[in-house]
Amino acid sequence: MKKVSILLAVAVLLGVAVSQINLASFISYQQKRSDAIIAEKMAASIGTLAYVYGYPLVDMAAQMHNETHLVKAEQQVYAPINRLHRFDEIVGPDNAGNLRLPNNDTLYFSGWFDIRNEPVIIHTPDTQGRYFTIAVTNLYSEVTHIGRRTFGTDEAYYALVSPDWQGTLPEGITPIEVESTTGWLLGRMYVAGKNDKPAAVDAMNNIWMAALSEFTPGQKPATPTPANSDPIDPLKSIEFFSYMNKALRTLPTRASEQALMAQFDLIGIGPNSHFDPEQLSEATLKGLEQALEEGINIVEASELRTLPSYNGWMIPQKVGRYGFDYIQRASVVANGYGNLPEESTYAATLTSGDDDIMTGSNTYKLHFEKGQLPPVKGFWSVATYELPKKQLASNEINRYSIGDRTPGIHFNDDGSLTIWLQSEKPEDPNKNWLPVPEGIFMAVMRMYEPEQAILDKEYQLARIERVK
């Protein structure tokens, strides 16, 4: 009897021990599973927002690398850091380079600046009233303008300086504070067609930049030896978060975004983190891969989302300054960056008055009644772009825009103006013909130095109408 009791007691004790072991294993398993779920879902959720937020930072990092290094044999845009690339051809279908929705009204020049150690000086010549502008763009795609509207057209020197720079500039140099220590300059010089191009090129060639330590008034600095490299394209890989993290570590944290940065740090991509994908847990990496996919989908969708419409024309409400509207910021960057509205206001449409998508198989007209042309201090033009390329399309007369400076433009007897948008050349030679792509296309109206009526939306563009 004692033997049976002892054996039973041992069996009970062993059973309890086994149960405790199973319970501990179960708890441990559940904890690890819960940790993995949290890590994956947090990385997916926060990472998606981070992708939208960081899109301009990474897009600019990629462009900066690819345009300040020689990355391919036939490279259209190249200039070392703190130097300018000048594009002395009027933009057409075959020479737009990395520009998206390029204009046909100005010559382009561009460059990437680095003011981490010292300011960069920009020289602009006396353009004798000729319109020009330089969009000083920080890594957030926010813009400050140097040019005719802001400072006039006399010869001048400007200095790009970081907020924490301590030093003294030479006399006569206007400081321009830039929040990020690296960024982009995109310049535009007005050109009134081929006959005006030599004068426009001469003015553009007299715009140059130099670091403060190499600056001598009136002397354009030498160009450094080109650097070769492989191109980078991190927008659709996990490397996106590496480039974003690197940029955030160089930027001053905005007081209004401290909580957001703390969330980014929770998943290892914020300004106080050093992102290393090889050190991530499997769950976090899985979540970031989901975030990458979702972020790409959001940005691509934002490029074609419905914007506020004014008589059928979509006019972005925020360009060059965005506040907390990170989707709008990403959308503008994906579509090609932009000037502040007071510098140039853009209006775009995909549809005609019948709300049908415009295609080259139809004929359209844009009619302005007398006295109803866009009220601008500068100039205006309308251009068309083939979709989804967002580029100008070749045509038999090499005309890619029509505006108030187009040679030979014909006004109607009553003083009104009609522009004909069609793929085939009209029989009437007096028609103001703007060739359009054969497939789906977008029309973009540019209004440079717009009057207040445009900025206040009091002036509304006429709707493009389908004729047949």
TrEMBL record:
Positions of the DUF1214 domain: 343-452
* Gene3D superfamilies recorded: Domain of unknown function DUF1214, C-terminal domain, Domain of unknown function DUF1254
Every copy of the DUF1254 domain together lies at 82-205
Protein name per UniProt: DUF1254 domain-containing protein
